[in-house]
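Long-time lurker, finally posting.

We've been working with NAD(P)-binding protein (Paraphaeosphaeria sporulosa) and I want a structural starting point before designing mutants. I don't trust myself to interpret raw outputs, so I'm hoping someone here can both generate the structure tokens and explain anything notable. Sequence follows.
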Amino acid sequence: MDFSNSALPAHYGLNFTPTFHSRIPANISHTASTLPQPFVVVVTGAGKGLGYHISLEYARAGCSALAISSRTESDLDKLEGEIASISKKNVAAGGGREIEVLKVVADVQSDADVARLEQEVRAKWGRVDVVIANAGVISAYITPSSPEESNLPRGIVQDGDWARVLDINLNGVWRVSKAFVPLLAQTKDGPQTIIASCSMAAHSVVSDLTPIAYNVSKAAVMRLMECVANDHRKEGVQAFALHPGAVVTPQTKNHAGNNWTGILADDEGLAGAFCVWLSKQKRAWLSGRFVSCNWDVEELEKKKDEIVKGDLLKYRMVV
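Top reply, 14 upvotes:
Generated this for you. Predicted structure of NAD(P)-binding protein:
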């Protein structure tokens, strides 16, 4: 299978807008995003990779508070230092108060840890504006028979990491959503947004590039966000399943095999900039849908009526 952008099936939605971005465009740069105050953001899986850079983009955009969560305290300490540096620059440039940071060592596989994260956020600020359910993994590597072959398992027989991947990628999002939806619902003066890390792999039925456990977990996350949006829209809560681009992270940097050549080409901050745009105000017309950080937001907004009328960017069985 050819995994280039132009060769992916249309139903993947990679080119849903005519313009495809691999770098942060001016229209979602932090210089174009003004966040209301107060603005409290929670990011899970913040210690490394996409969660780390999503946190930094919210800091650059001037959120008032960030709760960062990870399994590794030293990673959170490093992120806190970077947020503090950004915060001081914001203040020096006339951007208001310094950003408050709450560090919570927590594992999304633990009901108790996720509940404690919510309790600490509630106790400190009494509100939450945006929750980024970002923590995720891919199946453990196998030993390929040749350098041309992927070191990721192919098919259901090779993939022995099913339970762990589903527990983190799907159940972790469920735990975070279950814990934070009540606080989101109570924060009536905010965007009341939850964004779950999804993937174009949600649309894949082959494991040539990403293992089946990963694909299935992301497909389920997409449906879960639609359910959250549907069940809690009367409370003001909106939910999105986000494709965060193809990025070199600690999770992806050691992927091997010809299928991966040239794929990991997106900017590490692009997903964060898109999250800021997506969540800085209510976007009920997009709630419950799959979105990609590679899309151009101005072109996406022009398709609003088409999206709503056709109920696009959701799973539906063709009959």
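Before you design anything, note these points.
The two ends are 26 Å apart (CA to CA).
The chain has a mean pLDDT of 95.
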